[in-house]
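user: Kindly work through both lines:
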Amino acid sequence: MPTIQWIDQTLPLLDLKFKQQAIEHQNQLTKPAGSLGRLEDIAIQMAHLQQTKHPSADNIFIAIFAADHGVAEENVSAFPQEVTTQMVSNFLHGGAAINVLAKQLNAHLEIIDVGIKTPLNAPDKLIEQRIAKGTKNSTQHPAMSEEQLRLALNAGFDSATRAKKQNAQLYIGGEMGIANTTSASALYCALLNLTPTQVTGAGTGLNEQAIASKTQVVQQILAQHQSHCGSDPLKWLQCVGGFEIVALCGAYLHAAQRGIPILVDGFISSVAALYAQHIQPDISEWLFYSHLSAEQGHLITLNTKSNKPLIDLGLRLGEASGAALAAPLLRTACALHNEMATFTEAAVAGTH
């Protein structure tokens, strides 16, 4: 494996007094204790991570990483590979769901090309950190070289660094890459000891016959790389991952290292978060899971790690759309924590 000096950086040392202060404050607000459910937990965790009495999720930074996958040659997607480039163009012209959602949130949105097959010429709108014209077909070869793995992780590092410079209070990562649910399914199976049948789903809209074929491709990928990768998360990312999945993993690692809470999107983003946790387990408390994807394997993979999503709307779009939809819940949790009156301030009799 290549030397990646930043990957083992320590996370911020958190003073538990802010968490205790937040718990005590929640118990003083004009409501029965626990009556706001998980919104209370979110506010307490945000206060703990941000080391403040007044947590906030107003300044949101969204990054979309895009890349193509060699395994698309195995006909595992309902859409042709050209759609990756076409959708990136759509992002740049403001026509995608994430553009609308980012505008609603008044969030910063950046698009990073880490390896789409057909490059776009949009230097003023697109961040170009191209590693290759997509990965290799992982049924036959490692998806990327060790050097390409390092470059993809560094692309995520750079995005988190930009987020820190903008004083982001919440980092959201998204992805675009035709065939990336195939790569993600194999990555889940590799670390969670799940079978391809449990995890592999419809992706962009496959029928049952096509899902069965895709499941066989995932099994072929696992068989191809198991002896070499073992239980090493970096080797699995190299052999099976997409550049955008690896970049997301790097972004999550470095966002936590820089003290930025992370809101994880759906099926693809969650596998990047899973690998980030295997590389640096302490990252877990920095992760909020936004939604339960309609992708078949998402529920079982979240349950395996005891991760509770905030919403379930049957989404399977990717591109950070589910996280952007859930972000107002974090904002609201913080606003309630900061702005509700205490029993004393409102002259309401509380419980003792």
Remarks:
- The chain has 14 helices and six strands.
- Residues 141 and 239 are 7 Å apart (CA to CA).
- The beta strands are 60-67, 108-115, 126-128, 170-176, 262-264, 287-289.
